[in-house]
Amino acid sequence: MIKFNYIHHSCFLLETKNSKLLFDPFLDGNPKNITPKDLTPSHILVSHAHSDHLGSAYEIAKANNSLIISTNEIAVEASEKGCNSHGMHIGGTHIFPFGKVRITPAFHGSGIAGGHACGFIIHLEDKIIYFAGDTSLFGDMKLLGELENIDYAILPIGDNFTMGPEDAEKAVEFLNANYIIPIHYNTWPIIEQNPVPFKKAVEEKTSAKVIIVKPGETITL
Ligand code: NI
Ligand code: MN
Question: N or C: at which end does the chain have fewer Cβ atoms within 10 angstroms?
């Protein structure tokens, strides 16, 4: 059983019996007032170094001896700051104790010199989960959908900094995932979106189901 705990924005936890994976731990303004001290992840996956993604990653990693998994540039910086880290890069896969991770492209700034933003495809228990990170729509999402039998795709829909709902509808067609969880919206006015019309449009056009998870909620995948 995998628990998906949506903290807010792009930050969420995937929890199984043996692992706690924390993604993009930006906590400022989350509705349950979760602070770094409340989180005890085994691994922290960071898609890029913009402050709304890197967030409190180093502080949480140091306090819990968590392994930071990210692009090489961020992994090097994390180790310089005293954290355990595992650097990977786009197209690479690695098998961790919890399962396989593939680093995917994301069309976005890296937030760190010489770096590149990324997404992740994670094999966890019997599920395959794609977290797109911050990205535009891109044609190779179709290739990702062919390479991996994605169960859950966690996609930004906020627009302005990432794809918006209309482009995310196209992403759903490309990825061929069973379930879609929209994120990276309504954190600030500039990325305000109503996920309900997105859900309706996706479910009319494709066989995917959209699960709207409110910040602070936990669901079972
Ligand atoms: Ni960003
Ligand atoms: Mn962002």
Answer: N
Taking the C-alpha atoms of residue 169 and residue 80, their distance in angstroms, rounded to an integer, is: 40
Burial class for 17, CB neighbours closer than 10 Å (0-12, 13-18, 19+): exposed
| This model's pTM is above 0.90 | yes
- Distant-in-sequence, close-in-space partners of 204: CB < 8 Å, separation ≥ 6: none
Task: Provide mean pLDDT across the span 104-126.
Answer: 96
Q: What is the pLDDT of residues 133-154, one digit of tens each?
A: 999 999 999 999 999 999 999 9
The type of residue at 132 is: A
Report the separation in Å between the CA atom of 135 and the middle of ligand 2, taken as the mean of its atom positions: 9
Alpha carbon distance 164, 142 (integer Å):
18
